[in-house]
Each structure stands twice: as C-alpha cells, then as structure tokens.
C-alpha cells in the first residue's frame, strides 16, 4: 500500500462526500419532471447547506449535550462508511481497515445516535420518529446483512473491494443467489434511505414522518450536518447497489484512463438508479406504517433465499 | 507452587477473610465496611493476576488441598480456560469494590441486615472462583452449590416484598434442578471413567449414545443456569431484585461461570464431539438471542430489561459455541477455534458491559429510588457522568463499532461465513440461518437500548424523584468508569486480547489462532488478510478526525453561535413531560409485529374520567413450560397424599419396605 493509493482513497472519499447532495438533487429533479414540474436546480442542495451552515443554531432548553454532539457523530460515522466504499477504483487500502460488516455497523452507529437525538428534546414527534426508525431499521438491517453475506460467501471474503473484484471477474451469469440478494438489497436501500413507499422525504404531515420527525428540532449547522448525512446515506446505498452488483467499468488499476473510465461509469450508473428511484417514487404511494414490516419481511426472505440458494445450489457445484 | 496459582488461592483466602468480616461486623462502622470492600478489591486484583498468569503460562498447574473426602481430596487446577474465566471475576470484583461503599450506605440506615449482604457476597465470589478452579467433580459440585445457595440469600436480601421472596424461591428451585442435572452428567462420565477427578473423566471411553446423554444433561444443567430459552424465565425474575452490584455480579459473572462449566464439560471432558450437539446448541442459542432481545425491548423496568438482555447475550455466546462444535466435529479445526474464541470474547465483553449497565441502573436507583423507566427521563442532565458511562454500555451492548460488543459479534459472523467449508448441505444451510438470527438480534438489541437510554436518560423528567436526582459518589462513578474504559479498550485493541485468549484453544486442542494476530497489533485478520480485516483503532481515529474536524471547521468559520429556545415541536403547544413518547409507546410497533411471540394482556378499564389503560406483556415460557410442570408436580403430590395417613406404624412400615428394597437393589 503506497502513499499514493492512500491519497487516492482520501480523494475518492472527498469526492463521494461532495457528490452526495448532487445525487439527491438529481432524484428530486427527475421526479419533478415526471410530475410536469420544473424542479429545483441541481445545485440547490449545496445552496441549502451553505445557508444552513451560515445560520444560527437554535437548541431547545430541554436538550442535553447529546443533542449537540449527535450531528457530529452521525456525520462522521456516515462519512467513514462512505469512505469505505469503492466509488471509482476498487483496489484501495481503505478496504483493509474495515470490511462490509463494519460498514453496516457504522451505519448502525449513525442511526443509533440519530434515534437518540430524536428522543432527546422530549417531544412526542421525536420519540415517534425514533420508535419507527428503529422498527424499520431493525427489520431492514438483518436483510441487508444477509444480502451482503450472500456476496461475501460467494467471494469468500467480506472485504468489499475483493467482493467487487470477484463479481467483476466472474463470467456474467444469472446466479439465483445474486438475483435474490439484489432484490433484497433494492428493497432495503429504499427503506433505509427513507424513500417512498416506506417513508417520504418530502412529507409535510408530521404523523407520517419517520426520518424528518427525528430531526424536527434541529436547525442551523446541526441540521445541515444531519441533512448532509442523509444525502450521503442515499449515495452509499446507490453506490453499493451500482458497484457491487454491476461492477462494470470500475477502475482495477490506478491509471488516469482507468480512473476516468471508472468515474464515468459510476456517474452513469448512479444517474440511471436515480431515474429508477424517481420513477418508482412517482408511481408508488407511501404505505401505512404497519405495511412496512411486511415489505421488509419480503426483503428478509429474499435475502435468506439468496443465501440458502447459494449454500445449497452453488457451493457444491 | 506456581505464582499464579498462589495468587488464585490468595484471592480465595482474602475473600474468606472478607466474608468473615462481613458476617461478624457488617453493619458496625463505615470504616470496617470500607475495609471489607478493600478486601474484595484485593481479591479481585489477585484473581485478575492469577488469570493473566494462567493465560501466559504454557501448561496447567495443579495442587491438592487438604479438604474434602478422605479418599478424594479437593483437586485444584489452573489452566488457560480457568484463567480466562478468572478475568471477569477479577475485573467485576474490582468494580464492585469501588462501587460498594457508596451503594450499600443506604442499606445501613434501613432495616436490611448488611451482615447478610457482605458475608454472602464474599461466599458467592468464593463459590464462583472455586467452580472455575475445581479439578474434580466433587469440588466442582460443592463450589457450584456454594455459588447457588449464597446467591439465593443475595436475591432474597430485600425479602420484605413478597415478589422478591417468590423470585428467590424460584431461583433456588431452578438452581437445584440445574445442579441435579449437572450432577447426573458427571455421574455418567464417572461411571465410565472410574473416578471423580477430571483426569479420570477425560479418559472415560463413552459410547456415542452415553456421550450424548452426558452432553444433554450438561447442556440442560448449565443452560438452565446460563438462562437459555425456554428455561430462562427465572432469570429476569431473580437477577433484578438483588442489590444492583449483586445483579451485576450475577448477570455479568455467574452466567459466565455457567458458560465455563459447559465449555469444560463438553470441550474438555467428554472427548469426541458430535455435530448433532453443535446443531442443538446453535438452535437454542439463536432462539435465546432473538427472544431475549425481543423481550428486553418490551420491558419498562430497567433492571428487568438488562436481565432479558443477558438472555440475549448468552444466546450469542452459545451461537459461537454451537458454531465451534459444528466446525470441530466436522474436522475444520481452525474454524472451530475461531468460533470458540469469538464465544469467549463475547463472554468477556458481556461481563464488562452488562456489569457496567447494572451498576449504572443501580446508580439511577440510588439517586432516584426508581426502577420503572416510565417515571424517568432527563437523567443525562442530572447525572452526566453516569449518563455518559451508561451510553458507552449501551453502544457496546448494541454491537456498534468501535466498542467491544462489535468485535465479538464480528468474529462470530466471520466464523459463520465460513460455512461453505462444510461438506454437509444441511449444516451449510443451518449455519447461515443462525447468522441471520444473529443479525436480527443485533438490530433488535440496538432498538432496545435506544429505548432504554432514550426514555431513561433523555427527554424530560417524568416524576418528582427523578427531577431531584443528583450525581452519585465518586467511588460509584469510578467503578463505572473502570468498566467503560475496559469496554473501549477491548473494542479498539482486539489483537492483544485475542493473543491472550489464544492460550485457551492452544491448551485444549493443541493449536490456536495464530493467523488472526499475525499482522501486527493494529490489524485483526481472523482467517486471512484477504478474507477479512478490521482495524478498530483506525476506525476510531477516523471517526474522531472527521467529527472533530467538522466541529473545528464550524467553530473556526461558522459565523453565528447557538441560541437556547423552547422546543419547537412543529408549533404545537409547549411540550411538557407527559407528552413525551413513553417506553411502552416506543416498543408498540415491535410488539405489534412480533405479537404471536408475546402474551399480551391489553385493555381499557373503567368508564369516563377514571379510565385506565392496562398493558401487560408476559413471557410465553411461563404458560408453555413452567405452569404445566408446576401443576403436574402439584397433581402428583396430591395423588400420593394418601401416604400421609398420620399413623406412625404405617410410616415405619414404609421405611422398612424402602430399606428392604434398597438392600435388594444393592445385593
């Protein structure tokens, strides 16, 4: 591991963090177009973040120190998770620091503090959001881990870079285990990033909120960090789906041409995923909260089927 | 005699002195009380040194004590496995010695006899240490009973309340059924091994069927003590009613002693392992983990919540042990060792964070006299240090990086992910299902501890007692700080810890887990660096760097500061403490999703103004297992009441008949 590759990993992480608001803006814009609206400009989230960072932060009298620390923990854990994911190039040294289970753990750490922050001020909406978030994630996280395990067992490693390398090298074949895992991963990604049909990021009705209810009391720079972390999370799941299941184009060597190719490929894949997400959000309605467990059970079962079909059908063969 | 064995025996002697001191002059003066806790602390340090010594020594050391039966003197042996389980005893004893003086002060003014508390605490720790050190079945059972009986008195300490007496009786009963089962298990081994010392038991040649019988008895007995589902129902009754530092010892350490007994019996004494046992252990462990986490989520009594979470964590330990049995019995030596190390690591972690959390709950109880979370709230601002340490405990137990709970679950996952090595398709598909259950457990545990921390420590105080709570004494904080620090250290430095634990598989099976620690102290690589690696210290540093960097940047360039105002709450009326989400409300969605697994009694009583909402969530194990057994015993007892005729002649006749029958059996 040379210093150059560490530097490249750092640059990739910075690019990831910087690009996250853009993906959110892209989804919003496509969605607006589908609804015959013009929609905000692609740079709008950046302007929002700048404005929030420049504003005073209002903290409730009843808030504890945890309320003010939580945005930093949530942001740091999400950034770190983002830094672990191969975006442009696969073989970077960050993958050795933490594998894909740690990645899920870091997202769990961010969620833990987010849910605690929701309960901190002591309002009804905050507690409601935390309770629902823990329900959704409590059912989604096992499905996510199982989907990941399917890949990890096929590749005989939990190192994300090696998994991508393995999937990229393998001859293209419709493996049943991968199909199931892919389905589970998609469902989980939608649920975990708080999109329709599990949660609605654009809702204005408090009673239906999950993620928004937890951050109701935040303002100013704290809110900016929370919003940025949420956008990062969307990007994390997007890149996971795009690069793990379809690792085409990702740079396997560190030459400028390969890296440029990798950047182009991941941009195209994310743009397509964004369109798919906007489409599904346009045609689907948000579910009642107690339909969400059913939806997540489907994800869990798909993931379990994927894992079982791998160990039964593919290992011996 | 080797120095670390001397430490171990010195620890027991110190505890004996402490117990005598406790019994004779427990409640006389605060100075003697302090001396008592100093003795406990010294014993803890000695046990810790003994354990570390044993883990760093190549072979076992043993000595014969001049007690016991004439033909069977007590054999004491200290090997790596015993040494490893001396660590939690020592570490938690040290914490208790710091915590105790402040905590028991309130009992000194009440009517509760401190002599009982002090004396039996000493005996209890002696019992646990002797179980770990015993090298013959006789001493093992004596020590086991000492541990069970002395802890009975601790559970029954506050016996004025009927519920506590009932819990203590249930505890005693279950301890003895479990003890009987263990005794029979040793009996089976001794029948084939011609002797009661462990060396003879090891050489016993058992047929597979008898080996399975012995395994089943041991699994039943030790599993009952460890609190595995469906035999767990006594545990959440008994552990919470003891004083909090005793709850910490019972959940944190005594359950580990049961795990020790199981490992000693199955991995060391029985001999040839069978894969079917592994499947049984894996299944019971998975169910315990999930059920424990689900039930923990539904509790509103903070100590009951912690007790149910012990069921969950013991389940995780047994998942590791089950994986180890599966791999070892199918010839995958290295993977079996990995799973065993993961289980041991989790056992040690659980001892630390569960003790930490029980001590934190005790501090809250001490400061507010409140155990019901529905009456708490806002404690973080009133008790900032306890709040911080409790938060560390919550993060650790929820298996989140970079704390210690995550490392052991990560290792367990790594072992489970090697299931593709197995030849049998059935096993290959069972292991991933256990991994799925473990994943579900982790998420549910996180939800449970968000609830515990959010309802108790965040928000606004829901009762007067809690509003007036103040931070506890420095000694009690020091105990929590000690355990919280260990949680962090075991989380970020797994490689030195595994180097220590490694002595256990090396002495049991002849080879260890060299590859896990082969890449320096920074990198944990359980199988090979290309398979999986984790560097928690770097993760922690990166977290601190990004979080601290963001904070610094905003401080440096962010223009306006922070203003305090009323909570916004979407512009509704100013929120008060009663409008907060309660613990019951928090867990309602999960209750609804997993409804068939609970027994829920939910109703609205009364009419008009006096309406009351009533909700009781109880354990299905009561109705499914405990109640039928209890009523069966009663029925059987009623059946044979005709024996009790009241006439002495009839009783003598029965005695004679029994004597004759026994003589006939023997001859």
Please give the count of helices of chain A.
12
Count every beta strand of chain A, where a strand is a DSSP E run of 2 or more residues. Answer: 1
Tell me the count of domains of chain A: 1
Beta-strand content estimate of chain A: under 5%
Give keywords.
heterodimer, A: 317 residues, mainly alpha, 12 helices, B: 667 residues, two-stranded antiparallel sheet, 26 helices, 70% helix, globular
Put the structure in a nutshell:
The complex is a heterodimer of chains A (317) and B (667). With 317 residues, chain A is mainly α. In chain A, 71% of the residues lie in helices and 1% in strands.
Describe this structure in words.
The complex is a heterodimer of chains A (317) and B (667). Chain A has 317 residues and is mainly alpha-helical. Chain A has one domain (3-314). Chain A contains twelve helices and one strand. With 667 residues, chain B is mostly helical. Chain B has a domain at 620-666. Chain B has helices at residues 3-25, 30-55, 80-109, 114-133, 137-155, 162-193, 198-203, 208-226, 235-241, 244-270, 275-298, 302-329, 333-368, 379-382, 384-397, 404-416, 425-457, 464-467, 474-492, 494-501, 503-509, 536-557, 583-586, 588-593, 620-639, 648-666; strands at 61-69, 72-78, 562-565, 599-605, 612-618. In chain B, the strands form two sheets. Chain B has a two-stranded antiparallel ribbon with strand order 1-2. In chain B, strands 4-5 form a two-stranded antiparallel ribbon. In chain B, helix 3 (80-109) runs antiparallel to helix 10 (244-270) and helix 15 runs antiparallel to helix 17 (425-457). The radius of gyration of chain B is 26 Å and the shape is globular. Chain B starts with a helix and ends with a helix. Chains A and B meet through strand 1, helix 3, helix 5, helix 6 and helix 10 of A and helix 15, helix 16, helix 17, helix 22 and strand 3 of B. Strand 1 of chain A pairs parallel with strand 3 (562-565) of chain B.
